[in-house]
């Protein structure tokens, strides 16, 4: 069996190294938290979006003072069980526990940097 030619081996090696570096960077971006916390407000919507990669994208209305314009907190949910819990609480006051992941290389993992991990109703 003839050995591969260097003209083909070197470009394939470069492509393999680039793919490995991209995969490692993506793994780090998805597992390392830049910040984490909790936000409370009224659940406005949660929907599954995307052409190829379907993700749960939601909107929480944060109201600081009565009569003030509400601020919207846009977030992504990766777990279907958490999305089901949030869907059951749409229109109610809730507290979302989230982690922020900066530098995610593609929107295939979500449209936002904020990934919700849990939800609880607030009275």
Report on this structure.
- The structure is a single chain.
- This protein has 123 residues and is of the alpha+beta class.
- The chain has one domain: Nucleic acid-binding proteins (OB fold (Dihydrolipoamide Acetyltransferase, E2P), Beta Barrel), CATH 2.40.50.140.
- It contains 2 helices and 5 strands, in the order H-E-E-E-H-E-E.
- It has helices spanning 6-31, 80-88; strands at residues 35-49, 55-62, 71-77, 93-100, 114-121.
- It has a 5-stranded mixed β-barrel.
- The protein is elongated, with a radius of gyration of 20 Å.
- The relative contact order is 0.21.
Largest sheet: 5 strands, mixed, barrel
Alpha-carbon Rg, integer: 20 Å
Total of DSSP H or I helical runs spanning 4+ residues:
2
Shape call: elongated
* Distance between the amino and carboxyl termini: 73 Å
Strand content: 35-45%
Strand order of the largest sheet: 1-2-3-5-4
- Determine the oligomeric state from the structure: single chain
Average pLDDT reading: 89
Query: What CATH architecture would you give?
Result: Beta Barrel
Helix content: 25-40%
How many separate domains make up the residues? 1
Number of strands: 5
Features:
OB fold (Dihydrolipoamide Acetyltransferase, E2P), 5 strands, alpha+beta, 123 residues, five-stranded mixed barrel
Task: Give me the secondary-structure topology.
Elements: H1 6-31, E1 35-49, E2 55-62, E3 71-77, H2 80-88, E4 93-100, E5 114-121
Parallel strand pairs: 3-5
Antiparallel strand pairs: 1-2, 1-4, 2-3, 4-5
Quick overview:
By secondary structure, the protein is of the alpha+beta class. The protein contains 2 helices and 5 strands; from the N terminus they run αβββαββ. It has a single domain, classed as Nucleic acid-binding proteins (OB fold (Dihydrolipoamide Acetyltransferase, E2P), Beta Barrel).
């Amino acid at each position: 069996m003839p050995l591969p030619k260097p003209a083909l081996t070197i470009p394939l090696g470069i492509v393999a190294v680039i793919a490995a570096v991209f995969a490692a960077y993506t793994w780090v971006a998805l597992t390392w938290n830049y910040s984490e916390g909790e936000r409370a407000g009224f659940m406005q919507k949660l929907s599954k979006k995307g052409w190829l990669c379907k993700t749960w994208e939601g909107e929480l209305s944060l109201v600081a003072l009565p009569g003030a314009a509400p601020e919207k907190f846009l977030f992504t949910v990766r777990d279907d069980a958490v999305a089901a819990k949030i869907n059951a609480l749409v229109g109610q006051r809730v507290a979302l526990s989230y982690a922020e992941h900066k530098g995610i290389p593609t929107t295939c993992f979500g449209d936002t940097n904020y990934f919700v991990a849990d939800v609880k109703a607030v009275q």
